Amino acid sequence: MVDIAIQKEQKAELHSKLWEMANNLRGNMEAYEFKNYILGLIFYRYLSERTENYMNELLKDDDISYAEAWEDEEYRDGLKEESIDYLGYVIEPKYLFSHVIKLIETGDFDVEYMEKIINSISESTQGHDSQEDFEGLWEDMDLRSSKLGKEVSHRSKLIAKILNTINTIDFHLENMELDVLGDAYEYLIGMFAQTAGKKGGEFYTPVNMSKLVAKLATVGLSEARTVSDCACGSGGLLLQVGKYIKVGQYYGQELTSTTYNLARMNMLLHGIPYNNFEITNCDTLEDDKYEDRRYTVQVANPPYSTNWSANSKFLDDERFSAYGKLAPKSAADFAFVQHMIYHMDTDGRIAVLLPHGVLFRGNAEETIRKYIVKDLNYLDAVIGLPANCFQGTSIPVCCLVLKRERNGNSNNICFIDASKYYTQGKAQNSISQEDIDRIVNAYTERKDIDKFCHIATMEEIKENDYNLNIPRYVDTFEPEPEVDLQEVANDICKVQAEIKDIDKDLKPFFDELGLDFPFGEK
Description:
alpha/beta
């Protein structure tokens, strides 16, 4: 059992080091650019230490070090092959993180050597199955950027300082239960998502929101053949699913190239083998690259009410054609839902975070909503969440849970109003583990809970014209307490009597001073 106190202490120390690195870069570049260098170099150290650990294990019975074995051509060829097969990349002994730290200590390091290392790792994957997973991973870490310094010596000094700080962090690679490396990643992404003022949930979903979505999507499952996120950002939601069930293959799509690189790094940082995930840099709605794929579990936190083309050509696209309407050009929310529904496997399920407007907005969205509920009958639950829980937006968000196999619940929909259950923060609210359990238990048990949960029949939904606004189904009205008017009148009389007594006590003092008494009777 991991000692929680020790874990918290290690995290606090880790966050302190990360902040130290950010301060070293402060003044050179925009805050949100820090992560490109800090995460890129942390990722390099991770790959390096994985290599050292693997090689030490591989050579433990040969009584020879990795550096010595590399000098032997026969050994070297075998080690390259093993490393590519198991790790997906090769890092030569002279390019290991531990060797770079020695170069810094002797004053022999420069930033150009770091460039050689990055290029060498990328080149080692060329022509292999891992090539696509490593291609362009460090393209946002521009070691020649003048923002690091105009001279090579200035850039070298700054990068050496960052590497030295990274060297003082204990990543506990041998104890993945602590996942300190993953915590570093989440801390930095969270910190810089806030600093950069990203739209809510655009590339970073708060950890406990990710936990909630992952748990809702995996209720009753122990494994899933395929898990997908069509707007995966940094990959946090995908990784959360893997914490609750065994996942065969992870799939993700991400439009922003920088975030796409972060997602691939994140998968590798969390120990997902390169051949067990596929993250694609593409526009999910405009270009469905994998129209034949079907997924067991899908999770998503797509950008809220973002624009899309809503081109009439999509009326012939199988993802949208059956609905007869396209999501509005200014609000692509339902377009993402339609995309996900199309890609559901026969036993597929979805948990997706969306703005509340999808529950009640009219016109095309009303037509789409009605088709999902009435004709497909895939909607299993509607969950209202607290406001101000996402960076960059204060709006309340809802989570829709959809299932193709509704397990005897095809005649009802579970409505939960969890909007009042949260922990208030200075800049942003959050949900606790207790809040998560409350929601998931209510969803699982499907019983009415006063002012929190209602299992609405399809007849009720029909009576409400397929408007899914939660207050129509969960009554959270709190009546005002009754006021006893006689008691109030008695209190007023009592106070007036007390005032008269005080006036009597004060008047002699005013008379003695020759002042007019301003209170009570003259």
